[in-house]
Fold:
Amino acid sequence: MNTVNGKIFKEMLASGCNNLSNQKKEIDARNVFPVPDGDTGTNMSLTFTNGMAEVNKSGSDLLPVVAKSLSRGLLMGARGNSGVILSQIFRGFYKSIKDKNEVSVAEFADAMCNGSAMAYKAVMRPVEGTILTVVRESTDKAKAYVDGHSECSLEEYIDILCKEAKVSLDHTPELLPVLKEAHVVDSGGSGLVVIFDGFRAYLEGAPIKELSEAEILEEEKNEKASGYATEFILQLSDQNKAFFRREDFRRQMEQMGNHITLIVDDNVVKVHINTMTPGAVLSLGERYGEFTRIQIENFKQPQSPSILDEKEEDNTPEKEYGIIAVAAGEGLAKLFKEYRTDVVVSGGQTMNPSTEDFCAAIARIHAKHIFVLPNNSNIIMAARQAADVTSDKDIIVLETKSVPQGLSACISFNPDETVDANRQAMEDAIANVKTGQVTYAIKDTTMNGQTIHAGDYMGIFDKEIKVTVKNKVTAAQQLVDQLCDEDSEIVTLIKGQDATEQECKEVADYISGHYDVDVDVEDGGQPVYCFIIGVE
Structure:
């Protein structure tokens, strides 16, 4: 095969997407830290699935349309740093092929190299030994092979790309010592290798099928979409809002179909799903509230515009400022609301919101200037990407890497000050916060010379495991000793859902008894981390 058209590219993408979906949990497990928050594989899979949903929604086999639809879907569905980088790779690919309905192998190789370059540009401080290294080394070396072999086929090129990506991935521990110590390769790079392997499987005549009944049915319909594109907008009832859990709802939908888009904005749930059983999907939604819009269409019929893309009219006067914060846990969401936050996006570790989630939150705020607080280092890139695609509002993404930093930024905000003054005050507040977190280890490992056993409680400060003990209260107390000094004035102790009131009291009493500080205790209800500690 010496040329690539839209149909071929689409089938390569489907195989790569399915391969990633099948192996996402294995990629999640390659998390360097032994904490229960490995989500790189899931983030990349959700990102790619959203991209493929846009491709399928387009109904086109033209290469420019397929590439543009993929780029748009990846951009809006991007979750986590690896998901954002993945979206930029294929954005660069689309920018390179432009309006060509068919490209040569050399042009395809050039487009992949352009994707690599665009991914690097999207990262403020590129780190080698990550997905960036894998995409750069593999595309560069595969392109060099094509340049030296004028008759190179697409099959040969993809085979070289896969082999070089695997070599690069295996070398990542030599570039990042933390990978070497943990005896793992980079998880984001692993996801990219899996996608490339899916490309190769299709070209070898054995495309990867997703391990779900709905995907297999879709693939078996002679490469034609079958079933129903089902979309609805749901207003959560007051009674059922407390029982609605975003990730549980997504998992239930995954049993009914694929190519899922799920947007949750406070009391409103927006859903797109490709399914053979739309009735079952609607029955699931009906458990939680009332439908305000429903659209069901057979794939074999011309598709109407998505109701999820419709903008609701906002007649409220435009105000000067708005604030968006990311938080997991009802207590934290309530706390941010008390600190002038307009919209709290549900998410955090293990639940990284997408670019589209941020765009939906931005759309809900009728303000000239909107501050966005990601409150997690793995969410900042998606927030920035949402800011980049928003043209009618001034979006300021602050690099809050923890909940205490986000709360401190909110407290420092003054609605009577200028944008620049607020930004400076909030950034100063962020820089003045030290954050510690307590969680448990999910596997045996060695980090920074420490032997860690599954089930141990760890005190983490600045991405470094400082404490490893068998008791969560002891871990929190010892972590406080690492965080507090004679200059400390305020300690915020946030209780997670895995800590009891008594355990929280023991930690608070320890802080008050050992340090001359004001102690603010909050029930955050956050998952994963039984205690989050902010020190100012």
Q: What stands out?
A: Residues 213-226 have pLDDT under 50 and may be disordered.
